[in-house]
């Protein structure tokens, strides 16, 4: 998800190709225009943010309900109101500041925060697994009995502090949730945290190399997307377009839109046609900066 956010410009180019293809080759029968595949392909720019917003809203309801099952009704208003204000602030900032702030910078910052949280979650998972094994050996939940000797496995501990326990000390659970902080660092949790970042660095390095050279190191005919088994199962290679093919596709789509607007001749269709023409123009200019682009058919 984070890598996809960093490559939002590439995703925009793919969306433009999908929209252009749906305009150039509409279904012959009107009944086929109501099929799910055509609708998703035609209105992908609307469906994607709609589904994302709907999913986040459902997650908020599920999390608030799950956390508040064992709490009183007084504990609901404050987090809900704070969440609404925070969401409204971020949404307003993105809407009104979008023209002054680079979208790429915003996505880079958001992705960095996302990866910090995910690295902490991965490290926490390993830590809790090791702590569970230690609890089975001691016959109790040692971590909740304090932070002193006997509450951790000395044989698998790199360092330990007798305070700042996120399980019993107030405030430190926030750092535990966001960054994976533990007052006891085990071999497994440290290795998991570092291996996570190492794997991410390797993947981003390979993507950067492929972005510049067009292939993976020492493999001129191999790219990252070709390592995905579904690339060969779905035979996505046949849907890749060259620069000339993409330019021809955009030109044909623009001609079809202009003909449709001139035939219908009303303001609503003209406005819609102008919007789609702008999308296609942006797609043509963006296509010049890429060597090739893929058109994925949506089932």
Automatic annotation (TrEMBL):
It is a multi-pass membrane protein. One of its GO terms (cellular component) is high-affinity iron permease complex. The keyword Transmembrane applies. Keywords: Ion transport, Iron, Iron transport, Membrane, Transmembrane, Transmembrane helix, Transport. One of its GO terms (molecular function) is ferrous iron transmembrane transporter activity. The keyword Kinase does not apply. It comes from Pichia membranifaciens. InterPro entries: FTR1/Fip1/EfeU. Its main location: membrane. The chain crosses the membrane at residues 43-70, 76-96, 103-122, 190-209. Pfam families: FTR1 (PF03239). It is found in: Membrane. Belongs to the oxidase-dependent Fe transporter (OFeT) (TC 9.A.10.1) family. It comes from the Eukaryota. This is Plasma membrane iron permease.
